[in-house]
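User: My collaborator sent over this chain with a note saying "see what the structure looks like." That's all I know about it. Can you take a look?
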Amino acid sequence: MVTVHEVDSVEILSLQDNYIDALAMDNSDVIQRPSLFSPDSAHEGVVSNGPLAEHGFSSLITVEFEGQRKSMLFDFGCSDNGALYNVDLLSIDLTQVEELALSHGHFDHFGGMKQLVERVGKDSIPLVAHPSVFKDRYVRTPMGLKLSFPSLVKENVRSMGASIHETTAPLPMLDGYALFLGEIPRETNFEKGMPNAYCLKDGVEQTDAIEDDSSMIFNVKDKGLVVLSGCAHAGIVNTVNHAISVTGVSTVHAIMGGFHLSGPYHEQFIEPTISALQAFNPSYIIPAHCTGRKATLAIERAMPEAFICNMSGTTLRF
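Assistant: Without extra context I'll predict from the sequence alone. Here is the result:
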């Protein structure tokens, strides 16, 4: 087992996600939505641009413990400027960031890396990732069309100023107050990854197990685990089970991130996934990014008291 130090709180600010609703008006002790209005005086405000949403994910995570705060970036969004636009819009100071982590090597999670790392402005800032994030990847459509993905190139990452730390095993981050989960075992009978995903190995096509898929884990004092996935290609149920196994903490406080239940193939696994999520009995369930509309609606119906709709620019504090 790997010890994850307890934190007093963990804040997850979504610098990029697929969705935005400027009229949600559901702020609470847990949820903080960005405002469309900038203060102009004590009693008036002016409309400003809202956050950008795109098919991608990026988050700024801050843990608090013993009066200290430590921050990291987990994923970097899809486009060059999507997450960075929201950083500027929300006046976020990224120089506080101490470490970086990448959930897996798909372009909608590393697309804005260069811009965000430059804004952090630290030489040799650690970037934790599975060694397979650097694969040459693509998918095949039902008609057989090959759709190539942009590749993450190790030399380019180093030129950004990041120091790459490759690991398949769980790795503590932020002085042990966060955990990069490493490679996740595939144990459920319904979480099968992406059957149309392929990669090249020594120039030969093979199916892509997306074994680099990983998540971030936090342990909130008196509450339990907060599990944050990027896409959960390993399966969100496998992910939570592995987090419990690795940390020895059986209580799950929040499950958040992309659950990858979108599209005709994955939608058949929505119901068993929901049943397993209900068994974890989390206080909060926050499907995001690639979860898909049908799955998100089904999760909200099945777990209405725990459900939170995530959006670009939203801060969640657990």
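A starting point for your reply to your collaborator: The longest strand covers residues 68-76.
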